[in-house]
Batch of 4 targets.
Target 1
Amino acid sequence: MGQNRVVAIEAPDKYVAFTWQVNNYCNYSCSYCNPGNYSGEHSNDGNLDIYLANLQELVEKYQGNGYRNFKFFFSGGEPTAWRNFVPICEWIRETLPEATIAVNTNLSRPLKWWKNHIHLFDDIVASFHVEFGDKKKYLEKNVWLCDKVNYLATKLLMHEDRFWEMVEFGQELKAAMPNYFLEWTPLYDELSNNAGPWQYQDEDKKKFLEEHSVETQFTIDKPYKETRCVSYIKREDDSVVPCNSNDLIVSGENFFKGWDCDVGDCIFINPIGDISMASCGITYKVGHILHDIDNVGPRTMTCDKYHCYCGTDIIIPKRRTELADEEIPIVSH
């Protein structure tokens, strides 16, 4: 990026993020998505009591290492379709009332479902996929949710062939929502852990994404829950701002090869229950949520990945080192 590079992602208060891809079933099958995310072969349909016992053990292990803050981020597939999803969220809410519970959803569940379960969630990342999503229903649910949770991200996946249709829909959402945190999100080429940034061919599309990352407006009250599960970007001039992974993706600063990354601060559980530290696969398998959690715990590793593609991995605390690859190009979206 030239001047004033990012030198660290910092977390003033130690926290551990559980990122749980609970299934690979989705009622959508978008053209830009890896079939491994929607084919439905795996769904973590194990014994609920074992899940809860092992989650309790992991929480206690991190607490013993000085971690007092916890965030649980559920994804899929479509996580709301998983049979254990609601019971586990209920357990977290009861056991760790100060924990943050977040879900990454396509928001296709009926509005009634969200009204019945909204008390479980602090953060909702609501992605819209134009090939399958119902614009009218998606807008209706965003309008209802926008003052019901601490953080609602209205995340528009910028389809190459329907790019300007997505821009028009984004403007419609902004006009209808009294509160919004709207992300114009560039695609990856397959939405997998080996994905590369999508190469938009139209210069006007590239320019739009360079000028539009996140747009916000808050005009009516919404719940506020203080969370210490927050990361910050530190630059060479010692400036510090809250870390938004989409901003770093859009600006082409999500390249951390050679950095020291606290991968143990992010427990990633895949659709068959295998556990790794961070979702990028840098540690490979270190355990299984149903029967092998002994090797799960805090650790730091030097990143060997070309780029960091996952929003939850980007915000893991990490520090630039002398090993950082200065030759990695900044990719224009």
Note: The longest strand covers residues 15-21.
Target 2
Amino acid sequence: MLMKSKPSPPSNPPRRLPLLKNFDEAAALADKQKDPFYLAAFLIQCWLGGLLQRAAAEYAENKNPRDRSLQRGEAWRALLELFGRTMRKGHRYLLACLLRFSASDVSPRNSLRRALVPLSIEHRCAGDFFGPRNRPGAQLPVQNDELARRTILRWCDWLDATIHLGTHRRWHLTPACFHPDPEQRHLAALGNAQRDFASLDAPARAAWLMDFAAAAQRFQDSDKWAALGQAMSDNSDRLWIYPEVDTFVIALWPLVRAHNWTYRDLLNVIRPALQRPQAYPCECEQSFSTYCINVLGLRKTGKGASAKNGRPSGYEVAVRYCPALKGRNGP
């Protein structure tokens, strides 16, 4: 339903990012290669891992979706905490590191790389961020840095949506991974990943083996260890009733926030892609807004004016990112 294409690879692809087990290993590699990027890459890995854990905790520990805090700037706030000193010196270097990380880690697990797809589409439509339409050399350094800051900030919005959607999908398909106890969640995630071990790439397998060995040593005498085996054989019986609606709403929420779409705007945008566009929860704006808040945990802030033609600002980005929005029979 969402655009699956990857960002265009650079003419000279960077080296594939090796598995960085800890900061000391990253520091040793940076020293050996005389390249500080590997230190930044390790911190980026920690940042992304923390965001995934936080999103899982929101679902596991807040059974009522209204109590969850999702797509409210989590990625940007966490990035500021981790790279605060670096960003005070300027944003261009950090943006270069994020782009290089996305290019050098091509695994499907790289949520930052996946979030780069809608950001690239948004740039091609509006030219608001770093990309082909911008010529940094023709601008003042201060303007360059502000453009880099806005690019990172917007990338974080799309990253929040990407992580939210992945977490929401796992909530239905792998419920064992959402135990209220964070340690059992971790073990269940290891067990669930083992089911697809054969299809993982080499770095992912190495990471899994490292995590498994550490968990085995830590929980060898704990009753919690059973959570890993249970997840390996878990077959979800949690019914996912509206996967289409959920996917489009969660994936497009950054456009709702950026352009102050109304619930009616969002409803008008996604309806052409739905098999039952007039059925619950999309039969009317009131039902739809209630569903977004009470089921998906997404609440609008501020009031807006609905587009009269059903195509609010940002519509072009939406249909390029989700081609199905053009309608099942084409535009």
Note: Residues 135-140 have pLDDT under 50 and may be disordered.
Target 3
Amino acid sequence: MEKGKGERTEARTPVRDFKELETWQVARKLRIAIYCATRNFPPDEKFGLAAQMRRAAVSITANIAEGYGRFSYQENIQFCRQSRASAYELRDHLTTAVDESYFARDVYLELESLAMQTIHLLNGYIRKTKLLQQEKEKR
């Protein structure tokens, strides 16, 4: 497997593009849902919480993509860690938004679930990439 790619599809074929990563695909769903959910925020939050939530959501997918494009396993892992940190940041923003009644609790629960799924997949991707790095170092 090439330079830190790490994740495989169900058929066990190497991933050729970051868009094939399940981790990125779920993070993309989260990003799309965040953009949709923040469209109806109050006008005074346009450059506040809504913008912060959108930046965090974009950061998640962007860091997965950038890590995938890096040369080493360690660089890929570091970008995935940054992505995971942005997912945790987004979870805090979700709590603020529901506390301020910017969206309904069911929307919050759906977004929280997507965020947790993204974090879970990132953790697995990081673990798998570390294993691949260790295997390569043994050779």
Note: DSSP finds four helices and no strands in the chain.
Target 4
Amino acid sequence: MKLIPVILSGGLGTRLWPLSRSLYPKQLHALVTDDTMLQATVHRVADIEGIGAPLLVAGEELRFMVANQMVEIGYNDSRIILEPEGRNTAPAIALAAFTLIRDDPDSVMLVMPSDHLIRDCGTFCEAVSRSYPVVLDKHVHVTFGITPQKPETGYGYIRYDKPLDENYQDIYRLKQFVEKPDEDSAQTLLEAGDAVWNSGIFMMHCQTYLEELEQMAPDIYAACREASNTAQSDGRFIRPNREAFIQAPAISVDYAVMEKTSRAAVMPVQMGWSDIGSWDGLWQESAKDDHGNSLTGHVVIEDVHDSLIHSDNQTVAVVGVDDLVVVSTRDVLLVTTRSHAHHIRSVVGQLKQQNHHSVYHHTIVHRPWGSYQTTDKGERFQTKRIIVSPGEKLSLQKHLHRSEHWIIVQGTALVTCGDEEMLVHENESVYIPKGVVHRLENPGKIPLQLIEVQSGAYFGEDDIVRQEDFYGRAQGQN
């Protein structure tokens, strides 16, 4: 089989803020199962006989988190294409297609967003297996449409026509894309019986997709071809040429190809699909108590019904309300009704205009070596809790505007400070003067935890002058 899962992991998940943020988005969270959304996407097609190793497309800033989540589920060598900037799905799929045809000109892509839920994976895999020979033989683009259960106004629809041919009675010619309808239009589409929800999941022959892209969106084709042909490889990471790629317009695959091509086909599937596109959508898919409440974390309730209450750290008490969404993270409290949860995007837009940190990252910031959390900050000091994973190390670096004091609270640190190298054990500390080259490593088998006290005039992350980096990060990269 020449079928390769192509997993798009560039979404921001804005409507699930404050849990989902641009530097730790929805697909990297475990929302419904013990797996993250990304990991669940990989797992659901893993048992299809003969399917190839997944190829991922993600943003540069998410590269290590995506790679680490793949390693956690046993995919140590899966390739990851790093988009220099988000350009929507048509360019992202083009980068994948150019990569795959170098391996095999007859490759077929199974394109899947990384942040969707599918409860009936068996039915989905059967649909994939059924569609593969059609795509390979006829070079059509199959989109998997979701059989609608209600007149949903939050999804786009696809109308379909007669079957593809007598051998494929369950795969239909695509007739029309319909933007998200109003309630009356959605009811009409449901009653017509020839429309499905647009899932954004596609199966495409790579060469055919690129040929049609060249014809229908030549600017995207040219930019992605140049970006891919001049890409740099860095271990498992593939870095397309930035200058070339940003010339591609930001257009979805629907607009660029699927709405124009005569090769589009639809396979209706009923597989328990949801895009978990809002807090209300997550409430609908979550396990609930006898009163319809979805509760996560230390939550205490009294006379509460049909609500979603999520707490990351503190106790949350809710009394005498119905149909609410309450989300408490370490730095943000969100309260809304379920019916208004889709308006969160406008709130995030306001915060983005203010350049507020909560749009971009949590108080716990993930790095390839572990994580850190700012715990206190004053005019000339800042404290952090730092966790370094076993066997990992920070870059060899210096700071121009601050000194640091490290107090080890768990594990053993191997510290480089100037010309000296020393082991620092639990309940011991070390001082790093301003301007001195230093490095922190964890040589042990348990996580290294320490409290860092910074003193000085400036504490920005851009006050890091790297001399050497284990992860290949350049100056200014996280």
Note: The chain has eleven helices and 30 strands.
